[in-house]
Amino acid sequence: MEITTPEQAKDAIKIWLDENHHDIKEVKDENATFHFEIDYPLGSMKRQRVLQPKEFPNLIVILNGVSIAPEHMTKLKDMNPKDRDAFYGEIRKDLLFLQNSYDLNIDDVGVAKQVQFSYEFYYDALGKTKLYDALLLNHRTLLYIITKFNDEFGMPIMPSSQKGTEA
User: For residue range 90-123, what is the model confidence (pLDDT) as tens digits?
Assistant: First the structure.
């Protein structure tokens, strides 16, 4: 079936997510034709968003992200700026050739606060496999960031309500 309208895209995506037993929440979003928040991986506390921005017809965007742990932000702030830039540079080089995009949100003093990931594609590529490829790649990129920060700065102490959602 060729998908050509936002309604067809929304219905197909919802069916595929339902078939795989995801927890799906519709998000009210004035900037999107539709916007779902789902558990991915299935049954986890991690969330990803699947949306169709009104501003870009025929585009599907898969989003997720991670907040940097407070302990890691403190260690980043205390780093020599050249070492911190080198650390960010390693991340940029490692992610350069992935098909998803990332945004490393850095404050005025050079400390990363969060990292967001997005995977975009148009209706002509929309299928269940493409949807799940996008979800998996964003999830793997999130795991890479968590591992990279934990390897550099150690495991942060996690609040029980947010366990598994911070780098």
Answer: 999 999 999 999 999 999 999 999 999 999 999 9
| Contact (Cβ atoms closer than 8 angstroms) between residue 68 and residue 112 | yes
Tell me which architecture the domain covering 6-154 has in CATH: 2-Layer Sandwich (3.30)
Strands 24-26 and 47-53: unpaired
pTM of the predicted structure, to 2 decimals: 0.90
Distance CA 64, CA 37 (A): 10
Helix (H, G, I), strand (E, B) or coil at 110: coil
- Listed in sequence order, the residues at least 6 apart from 57 whose beta carbon sits closer than 8 Å to its beta carbon are 6
pLDDT digits (tens, 9 = 90+) for 27-74: 999 999 999 999 999 989 999 999 999 999 899 999 999 999 999 999
- Delimit the domains of the chain by residue range: 6-154
